[in-house]
Write a structure and sequence with these properties.
Structural class: alpha/beta
Strand order of the largest sheet: 6-11-10-9-8-7
Number of helices: 10
Order of helices and strands: HHEEHEEEHEHEHHEHEHEEHE
CATH class of the largest domain: Alpha Beta
CATH topology of the largest domain: TIM Barrel
CATH architecture of the largest domain: Alpha-Beta Barrel
Largest sheet: 6 strands, parallel
Strand content: 15-25%
Number of strands: 12
Number of domains: 2
Helix content: 40-55%
Distance between the termini: 30 Å
Length: 284
């Protein structure tokens, strides 16, 4: 759950932007059929099995439009929900319920979809020491929601943004002139409390990363035999992360490696939404 400070500083402005995108001047459809304030209630129904995520954001959409709107949830973030289940009831001015419906559902469906997909991938790593990580491959201006959803689904967050940690990728290495040079330069510049992670694609790069004293070595887009060779060479001298087109369909092939981390951009860029709907709107 987002704390109050995070909601006000980071989340509310993003929700307002989403509402402003959907309502540039007025909600013409709603104002046509509902010219005056009328109290109403609507049901939030689950239409597909999955994991609920984003309840707080869903409710906040309506209260930003009208503080008097009340949402009563019968499930909370992280709960397994099933097709046909009543998830919540929203009560307030019918005009607000109609105007906020799509934005509220967009957040809840997207966040629940990421949590559901992450849960299914994380389940394939159960019984291993390997932690499942997300990446920065997130929807612009929705990273805070998507990375939260990964955690709700049982995954872990890699660095939040470029200010949050040192990860030297192929183009950083090219700019520095090599793996060793990039690691040495990062150690000289970055605060000493920062770990240095470097992405490598070949055994020669692995050896350079170990020699330079990288704290974490990301093995990117290597085949299984290459991964095993690299892990044996590293031999505990650095933490090991495996990355590169990891999905629900292929992650099981990596579980025997015993690495510290497996990262997957698919958790956020390829998760389908979870189907949820607001139904049975009526006056009260």
């Amino acid at each position: 759950m987002f704390d109050q400070a995070t909601m006000k500083l980071k989340v509310d402005p993003l929700i307002r932007m989403a509402l402003e995108e959907d309502i540039t001047s007025e909600d013409v459809s709603t104002n046509s059929v509902m010219p005056t304030a009328t109290m109403g209630e609507v049901d939030l129904i689950c239409k597909q099995d999955g994991i609920l995520c984003g309840a707080q954001v869903f409710a906040r959409v309506f209260t930003l439009l009208d503080e008097s709107v009340k949402t009563e949830f019968y499930a909370q973030d992280g709960d397994a929900i099933s097709k046909g289940q009543l998830i919540a009831k929203v009560r307030g001015d019918i005009r607000v319920l109609l105007s906020g419906e799509r934005t509220a559902l967009n957040y809840l469906q997207r966040m629940s979809g990421v949590a559901t997909y992450t849960k299914s991938v994380a389940a394939l790593l159960e019984g291993t020491k390997t932690k499942l990580l997300d990446t920065r491959k997130t929807t612009p201006n929705n990273r805070i929601f998507e990375k939260y959803s990964v955690r709700i689904g049982g995954g872990n967050n890699h660095r939040y943004n470029l200010s949050d940690g040192v990860l030297l990728k192929d183009n950083h290495i090219g700019a520095a002139g090599g793996v060793k040079e990039a690691v040495w330069m990062a150690k000289a510049y970055a605060p000493f409390v920062r770990k240095i992670e470097v992405e490598v694609e070949t055994m020669d790069m692995v050896k350079e990363a170990v020699e330079a004293g990288a704290h974490i070595i990301m093995l990117d887009n290597m085949n299984h035999d290459q991964l095993k060779e690299a892990i044996a060479y590293i031999d505990g001298r650095a933490e090991v992360e495996v990355s590169g087109n990891v999905t629900k369909e292929n992650i099981a092939k990596l579980t025997d490696l015993g690495v510290d981390y497996i990262s997957s951009g698919a958790l956020t860029h390829s998760a389908p939404i979870l189907d949820l709907s607001l139904k049975n709107l009526h006056a009260v």
